[in-house]
Structures are given as C-alpha cells and as structure tokens.
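Hello,

Our lab assistant flagged a job as stuck in the queue for most of the afternoon. It eventually completed. Since we weren't sure the result was trustworthy after the delay, we are filing this so someone can double-check. Below is the sequence as submitted and the structure that was eventually returned. Let us know if re-running is recommended.
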Amino acid sequence: FCVALSLYSCSVETNNVLSPNGKIIVNVESKNRDADGYGSIYCTVEYVKDGMLKTVFSQIDLGLTTERQDLASKLKLVTASSPKEIKEDYTMLTGKRSHCSNQGTERIFRFKNEEEQILDVVFRVYDDGVAFNYSIESIENEKENIVEELTSYLIPEGVKRWMHQYTVDYENFYPLATNGESEGKNAYMWGYPALVEPEDSLFVLITEADLKRGHSASRLYNGKDKNLYQVRTTDEKVEFQGEWRSPWRLLIIGDLADIVESTLVTDVSTPSTVSNTDWIVPGKAAWIYWAHNHGSRDFRIVKEYIDLAAEMGWTYNLIDAEWDVMGNGGTIETAIDYSLQRKVKALLWYNSGTNWIGPGAPGPIGRLNTKEDREAEYAKLAEMGVSGIKIDFFAEDGVDMINYYIDLLEDAVEPQLMINFHGATIPRGWQRTYPHMVTVEAVYGAEWYNNRPFLTDRAAAHNATLPFTRNVIGSMDYTPGTFSDSQHPHITSHGHELALYVLFESALQHMPDRPSSYRSLPEPVKDLLRTLPTAWDDTQLLGGYPGKEAIIARRKGSQWFISGINGTDEPQVLSFTLNSLNPAGQRMTLFKDGEDHRSFSVEKEMPLSQMKEVIEVDCLPRGGFVAVIE
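-- returned structure --
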C-alpha cells in the first residue's frame, strides 16, 4: 500500500500515514519543543487532487488531560508502529449499501510526558477518510477523570462550511457560512456532522463513531478562537479506570461523491452483536402524527392508518404518542389485534423518560428506564406481536445517556424489537453493531410543518443540504413526502416531495400524509409508493451541491431509482448520466413536476436506447423528480 509520491515515504522512520491509494496523507508532528524534545503534538491532513497536493487541515491539535495526567502540552514521540493494512468486508441490513468493504493503513504513535505517562494515538487512513483515537491508562489502575480533549480542527475564516448549531435533539438547519460566528443558546457549539470545503471541490465531513459504554458523545466548540473547533464532550468530566480508548474521531474526505457514498462511520464501528437478524425487516410505515398531533388517542383515526398501510402494502403502522390513553371505540390492544388481522405489523411510541417528563409530557412514560421495567415491557410487547418501538425525548448525550441507549438496544434483542430513536443523538455507527436500530431522527424534518412555520421557506435548500451532511452518517427519519399540508404549508413541489423518498435514506421510512392524500395521487405514483425499497444495495451521487441541488441513484437488486431535487427558488434543469450505473434494465419511467407545484407529469417506460447520454429534467422552483430503471 505504499504509493510513490515525490514528497513522501512510507518508511517507518517518517511520521506520516498514507491511504492505500496514496491520495490522503496524515503527517504527525510536534511544535514548541523544549531542549529535551518535549512539545505539543498535532497532525496535518493533505489530499492529492488532480496531481496537486491540497491542504485539508493545516493543523489538528492532539492530546488529552486528566485530573492526574497532562498528555497534551509536553509530549515526546516514543515509537511509531510499522504501517499495517486494515481490510474488512461485511454486510448491512440497512443503509446506503448492503455489501461494505474498507481498506486502510494503520499506524500507532506512542507519546510520553516527562512523568513517563503514555498516550497512544491510533491513525487509520482510508481512501475516503481518516479515523483516529486515543488510548491511555489510569494511574495505578485507580479511577480518574478526563477533563479535556485537545483535538481541534483549524478552519480559517473564508472557508465554506455547512454546520448546525448544537441542539439536544440535533434538529437544526445547516446554513452555508464562511466564518465561525454564532449566537443565542449554545453559541459557538456545533453538532456533528460538519461539512467543510477547504479547497474548491474538496470536502471533509467531521463526525465521530463507535461510542461504547462509558463514552460521552462530543461536539465542536469554537468560543475561544472562532477559527479553531475543539472537540468537547457532553460531560465535563469522563470517569475511567484502567485502560480507556476514545471513540473514533472521523474525517470523511474527497469530492462530494466520496462524502455521500462513504460507509466510513460503520466501517470503523464494532461489528454486529446480533446473530439472528431474520426479524429485522426494513420497510415503510403509515404514520399518524404529522396530520393528527394527538391522533393516537383515537382508535377510529388509528384504524384509518392501519387500513391505509394494508391498502398500500406497507409493512408497518406506527401508533404514536398517547396510545396509552386511547379511546373512541378501542384500546391499544384492540388496535394491535386489528393491525395484525390486516397483516400490518405494529410499531409503538414511548417517552424515554429522560428529557420531557414534566407537566404535559406525553405518555407512555417511565416504562423503560430500569432494566426490570424495560425487560417486562419488552416481553409484553413481544407477546402482543409488536415489531418495534420508537423512543423519544432523550436528554443530552453524556455517559449516562449513551449507556441508556445501549441498554435499550441490547435488551431489545431477545424480544426481537426494532428500535427507532427520536429526539435523540445522531447515528455514530450503532447501525452496524446493533442492526435492529433501523433509523434515527436527529434532523429538522417534515414533522416541523406540524409544529412551527420555519420549514416552509427553507425546506428546499435544507433538503438539498441533508444528503451531504446528516444523511451521510446513517439512516435519517425525516418522514418525507408530504403532498397535502399540516398546520404550516409546504411550497416544495409534488415532484420534490416524491423525490425525498429515494433521496433520503431510512431503513424504516415513515409515510406521513393523510390517507385521503395518498388515495388522491395518480395511480402510477401510488404504485411507486407501494413498491419503493427502504434499504439499498448501492448508492451513487450523480450530481449536486449543498443547498442547490442533489441527484442520487440507489439500487435494489437490478432496479435503479434516481432522485433529484432543486433546492432553489428558480426553475432549474437537473442533468445526469447513467454511465456509472451500468443498469440492467432497458426502460425508464420518469415522475417529475407537472404544470404546477401540486401536480405530476409521468412518462412511462421510455427505452434507454433512445435516450440522450446526458439526461435532462426540467424542474420547477423547489421541484424534483424520480426516475425508475427496470
């Protein structure tokens, strides 16, 4: 895996790590060294693009401090391991690709401080990014607290970035910015993932992966220096005893296709701990909340959505909050029995009991917090024939909350319950470790049409940003495809809304609109919504730029589904080619904008042999399309 570069060598004597294809180079360096060679440590990340060496990060500060150890300010390199090939091949039930493989180069750099205390930094450099983590040991195997991580990414003013200001539920916009200014609550605190364009057409997505028990989630903070984004854990102190290893700090690097198509988040995460996965079934679910906030209280309304799922051939129906007080002709038991009679699997909502638990908090609440209560509730659900649960309203993702997420996942394996986390932290690789975690919200999605007016004017650009940011790191429960209006209207076109079902990856795809709205759609559109997959064998980005447009192709078996949206307020022609897809099918059906925003135009079974090499689709302002090749 050594690649001949005039400026670099793969020898053990040099402190660099190269990707197998030689395009990504990490250099581990020190600065401010004293006479004995002790100093602070950092790394640089560079990328070979079009034969030119480009800077991704000119400086990433490294190191940790605990209450008893300074492993940051005065360190000396002790050893650097020989380059080691990392190669893995695995399958996924969910996500953008069913068969995943990765290949990287690993080196471990060991540093010591003046007290002979040790810090190991492990670097893995892949063709599509960089992963690194820290390993330390507590003194005399006693309990100790990590008080600061020095990891900081230098992003100078003027560099484009799409970052969302941190909120506990990771629900916010990713506006384009060229500086680190922010305001209001959680000012200068930024949630993952963060997309940066350090050079024209060269991108890096910053996130983390493989959180385990005892880990606190982290985010980025630039309050000390607007250009320096430091990793900060949710908990100010993280307790450990004995050996401790951090989560992977992750940088996905390349052009936009490299970012969108990457599986690096799961590549570096712990392999599946679930042996039998037959019960984990991706699919579509009718969803009551978007049109009826309190609809799950009413058996008659719940029944309408069960009937819709049965009529459309959808696998699931989600009975949302407040089902524990259901009335008007039935109870939750009645609803589940009816759903199973109609051959529709039932999903139920739960309040996590950690965040919104005060006056007015919806139930059921308090049933999952202790292991005893959780196992009893899970067993009851399994006996009733429930297939999965949606758990909502989580508190901030410190150590206790990360442990709770893992408890919820691990205890759900024996009763065979799929899990959907809402009002929750972002995916960090658990979709590989716990494949029954079929989707996660952590996005400003269509639910907000029900809550506040902010999404209406910003939805199109926001939707055209999410494929390059939030949805890169894992399934995203946006609840797409709203053809009618909730409390606040949408001004995206029907073509745009239809496109979101393919554009946004979620193994459990909730169908949020009213039964009457789905029934009023043209028959070809209804047929598409009946048969559309929710887990994919391959994903390719065919074009786009954050906030402007996005065109993504996803394959299931021999079928390709191509989705494109216009994120602007002007008409736009979206263009793409099929060269990279090698489609087995011979014909394409195109669903696109009609004469106005609330209509479709459908062109059926057009022979590919008669189509131009560059396919162009006229889109309305905030418009979109879906093309199906079979």
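-- support follow-up --
The delay was a queue issue, not a problem with the job. The result is valid. Residues 541 and 552 are 5 Å apart (CA to CA). Confidence is low (pLDDT under 50) at residues 1-12.
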